[in-house]
From TrEMBL:
PROSITE patterns linked to this entry: ABC_TRANSPORTER_1 (PS00211), ABC_TRANSPORTER_2 (PS50893)
Ribonucleoprotein in keyword set: no
PANTHER family in the record: OSMOPROTECTANT IMPORT ATP-BINDING PROTEIN OSMV
Pfam families: ABC_tran
Sorted UniProt keywords: ATP-binding, Nucleotide-binding, Transport
Family designation: Belongs to the ABC transporter superfamily.
Protein name: ABC transporter ATP-binding protein
Keyword Acetylation assigned: no
Domain ABC transporter: from-to ranges: 84-317
Coiled-coil segments on the chain, per record: none
MF annotations from Gene Ontology: ATP binding
Source species, domain of life: Bacteria
Length: 335
């Protein structure tokens, strides 16, 4: 049964005006030039056999391909953030098989920190969330979305990923400028004004990075802190994934506090492995890992938050020393 799409029957000018990406779709098939016609359906109907042979598709297949493409685009554009009100993690067992006995509900805008010694299971926990584990990982944990088992399509979807990962190492292999790189992403996400969004992301990234870069800076020339800042701004503004997993925002010349606030502001559910005292205390809670299991859940108390101000002061002083070191100054006297 061939798939039908109303888009093929729109007046051609309107189709191209409202959906400029259709031109890219056609160009990719070698159909940038089409026989004249009032609608795409009529243009495709007028294609001669020879051109169809060049494309390698039957006429009906071509329409079905177009319908599937437009459906994919619609899915991409459909807002999905509103559909996530909570993520629930139901405890499984630690490495010795002892039950974890916890049920944890995470909501948009909340930051949950993950702490514990090396090998205690922090990355495993993040992986359980990334894959929406259903008792089928070594921990036996289960993850619910909006209080229910997510449908399997959601679990394996690549275009509507629930989870975005910000990992430590950003290795760019493409030879693009920062502006080209981000605008390519903005265009692929089909945002209404890719140029404006790109500018916002570059500005945000620069406000997070200790040292500035220009839109023309090649991504391969960005420092560790700059590329990290760029990825954080990109995830905050362009990713539709409602859950963000962060494996430590290290102190690589980046305003960690602002970065975290920026992500939380966008109503994302944030899980972050960190032992940075300021970031850890900015979170709503900390999950303490031992022997592969969650040993304790500590809600950040008012008393802990009171310490935060003092740690921020200490951090500002250390930042000043770091700055002075970077500038080749001597570190003597009052700091
Ligand atoms: N509950 C569990 N049951 C069985 N295996 C587990 C469990 N939790 C973690 N593991 C396994 O233990 C190993 C160490 O865990 P993981 O890498 O998550 O630790 P980590 O805290 O992230 O360590 P690091 O800080 O060094 O990165 C991994 O192979 C992981 O799959």
């Amino acid at each position: 049964m061939p798939m039908k799409t109303p888009y093929a029957d729109l007046p051609l000018e309107r189709l191209f005006h409202e959906h400029p990406h259709v031109r890219d779709f056609l160009a990719a098939l070698g159909l940038a030039e089409l026989p004249a016609g009032p609608t795409l359906a009529s243009c495709l109907a007028a294609l001669d056999e020879e051109r169809l042979e060049d494309v390698g598709l039957e006429r009906q297949e071509l329409l079905a391909r177009f319908a599937a493409y437009m459906e994919g685009v619609e899915r991409l554009l459909r807002p999905q953030r509103a559909t996530i009100g909570s993520v629930t993690v139901i405890g499984g067992r630690d490495k010795s098989g002892a039950a974890e006995n916890f049920t944890l509900e995470l909501r948009p805008g909340e930051v949950t920190c993950i702490v514990g010694p090396t090998g205690s299971g922090k990355s495993r926990f993040l992986a359980d969330i990334e894959w929406l584990a259903q008792g089928d990982s070594p921990t036996g944990r289960r993850v619910l979305i909006n209080g229910a088992v997510p449908d399997p399509g959601r679990r394996y979807a690549v275009d509507q990923k629930l989870v975005a990962q910000l990992s430590q190492n950003m290795n760019f292999v493409m030879d693009l400028s920062a502006e080209e790189f981000i605008s390519l992403h903005a265009e692929s996400r089909m945002v209404a004004e890719p140029a404006a969004v790109t500018r916002t992301i570059l500005d945000l990234a620069n406000s997070l990075a200790g040292e500035q870069f220009t839109p023309a800076t090649p991504v391969t020339a960005l420092s560790g802190g700059q590329s990290r800042a760029l990825m954080i701004a990109d995830v905050a503004c362009l990713s539709s994934s409602p859950i963000v997993l962060i494996d430590e925002i290290e102190n690589a010349g980046i305003d960690r506090k602002r970065a975290l606030a920026l992500l939380a502001d966008r109503d994302k559910i944030i899980l972050m492995a960190t032992h940075d005292p300021i970031l850890a205390l900015m979170g709503e809670r900390r999950l303490v890992f031992k022997n592969g299991g969650v040993a304790r859940i500590i809600a950040t108390s008012a008393a802990e938050r009171a310490n935060l101000a003092r740690f921020e002061e200490m951090d500002a002083r250390l930042t000043a020393v770091r700055h002075a070191l970077r500038n080749g100054e001597e570190i003597a006297g009052e700091f």
